[in-house]
Design goal:
heterodimer, A: about 130 residues, mainly alpha, 4 helices, B: about 375 residues, five-stranded antiparallel β-sheet, 10 helices
């Protein structure tokens, strides 16, 4: 298999994971709307979460189209997500309990980062 | 809210074992191919020709297959039979990635059918959604997403491209909502209300346990008499927690009492109701030091501890919402699980009783004018 095909394949796989993350964020944002009726802070957080989800759909789309800025933004988002999860996991508040939070909050961001890193940056066409 | 069912735990070990076995299998194939075994050479050629995405999809289907087969002993009847068929189907399709050119469409159908069947089972109450089941659906969703992206994009017209762009997010959303509905519609006996899990206890209290529960209530009432005035509580080291518009109760916590265990003289928190005429002391909250550490229950089922989990907590304003079954929270909030707690209500708590996880609706309405 050529290096280009392997790189495209990794970018596609990363795109699938980002779309999955965006879909999960979208549901988290939508599900917080009813709480916003009595909790004003969640009105802001739900709208913010939906916007982040939309942004991730858009980044996934542009990653597949070979936009290098999408690659950079996704690396930033995933590193941020992973860092926050690790910091929360260090607190005694039961953030990571069981396989689902491990897969969603640790393995998935890590997998996206590995896929993006191994799809070597020079191989991602820069179509600004 | 979503724990690991006891009979599902071996499936996690099976998934890890299978991945280790697969690595050994590939090495064995390489060895056999080196010795020019025809079938091994053909299999390896197919494996090497597959894209990384196809290989990843195959690995995920193998994991799902192993989980299904490992779950068979705990599932009788039609569910067990379907798990056997499903598990073998996934393994065959995973092998098909290296041996056939037509595996993609059957794999997409198999994965979709498995996810839909799970949702039907969960919503009908035939299967309780637990973390192994949900993790398995997550693995299948990723595999399905990969399989859907493997199709040659040059052949697609715009309706198909639109379908490809929306089908996967739509299926993820429907899966999340379906699991959520199933979990809320058919909660197990240890879910007091959304977000609170009860300590497992015997179903009937013994006469000794009834006496012990009455003693705990009397001791708590006697101890709390000195804190009717919130100023006295503050003077004793209790600090009011953040006020939430959604909660008419206000907890005053004392960090110095963290290490005490069910000590009526040193409750971890005092609970005041925000009434139209000011704060009124309604009870105490005992709390254990660590998550998952159930406290002593002298009253047996009468003094049942509970812990809150599956909650998204926003430190900006002390507000809560619920986590999705895939353990996601809105941006700016984090998932928390509280250490087990036991409330002792010193006012008449109606039908719910003095040790209920929550203040009775009627009592709450009477105190605060809110339901």
């Amino acid at each position: 298999m050529s290096e280009t095909t392997a790189t495209e394949s990794r970018i596609e796989a990363a795109g699938v994971l980002v779309v999955l993350q965006a879909s999960l964020s979208l549901i988290a944002g939508l599900s917080a709307i009813p709480f916003g009726i009595v909790e004003p802070g969640f009105r802001v957080l739900s709208v913010l979460t939906i916007l982040v989800a939309v942004m991730m759909f858009w980044l996934a789309r542009n990653l597949r189209r070979g936009r290098r800025w999408a690659w950079r933004w996704l690396v930033l988002v995933e590193v941020l997500s992973l860092t926050i999860t690790v910091l929360l996991a260090l607190l005694p508040i039961g953030t990571i309990r069981g396989p689902v939070p491990v897969l969603v909050n640790l393995v998935m961001p890590l997998a996206v980062l590995v896929l993006l890193a191994t799809a070597s940056r020079h191989a991602v066409p820069d179509r600004r | 809210m979503y724990d690991i069912a006891t009979d599902h735990a071996p499936a996690l070990s099976a998934a890890i074992l299978l991945l280790a076995f697969s690595l050994v299998f590939v090495r064995l194939l390489r060895f056999l191919a080196g010795r020019e075994a025809g079938w091994a050479v053909r299999f390896l050629e197919g494996f090497n020709a597959a894209s990384p995405m196809a290989k990843l999809a195959a690995a995920l289907m193998l994991v799902s297959g192993a989980i299904h087969l490992a779950l068979v002993p705990g599932h009788e009847g039609i569910t067990g039979l379907l798990f056997i068929i499903d598990g073998l189907g996934f393994i065959a399709l995973a092998l098909g990635v290296s041996t056939t050119t037509w595996w993609r469409r059957p794999a997409a159908l198999w994965l979709s059918a498995t996810i839909v069947a799970y949702l039907v089972w969960v919503m009908a109450g035939w299967e309780a959604p637990d973390q192994v089941g949900i993790a398995c659906k997550l693995i299948e969703l990723v595999a399905l997403g990969l399989v859907m992206r493997l199709k040659n994009p040059a052949r697609t017209a715009w309706p198909r491209r639109l379908w490809r762009a929306t089908a996967f997010p739509l299926l993820v959303s429907l899966t999340t909502i379906g699991i959520w509905i199933g979990g809320l519609a058919h909660p197990d006996a240890l879910h007091a209300h959304a977000g609170a899990v009860l300590q497992p206890v015997a179903s009937v209290a013994t006469p000794e346990e009834r006496v012990a529960a009455a003693r705990l209530l009397a001791d708590t009432k006697a101890s709390l008499a000195r804190y009717q005035d919130p100023a006295a509580a503050v003077a004793a080291g209790y600090k009011p927690g953040p006020v939430s518009d959604a909660d008419p109760l206000l907890h005053f916590q004392n960090q110095a009492n963290i290490g005490a265990v069910l000590d009526p003289d040193r409750p971890q928190a005092l609970v005041y109701a925000r009434t139209p005429v000011g704060l009124k002391l309604v009870g105490a909250m005992y709390q254990m030091p660590r998550v998952g550490q159930w406290g002593p229950d002298p009253g047996g089922p009468l003094t049942q501890w509970h812990q809150h989990e599956g909650i998204c907590f926003s430190p900006l304003g002390f507000e809560f919402s619920f986590e999705t079954p895939f353990w996601t929270c809105p941006v700016g909030s984090g998932s928390i699980t509280t250490p087990p707690m036991l409330h002792v209500w010193i006012i008449d708590n109606g039908k719910s009783g003095p040790f209920a996880a929550e203040l009775d609706k009627a009592a709450r309405h009477q105190l605060t004018g809110r339901s």
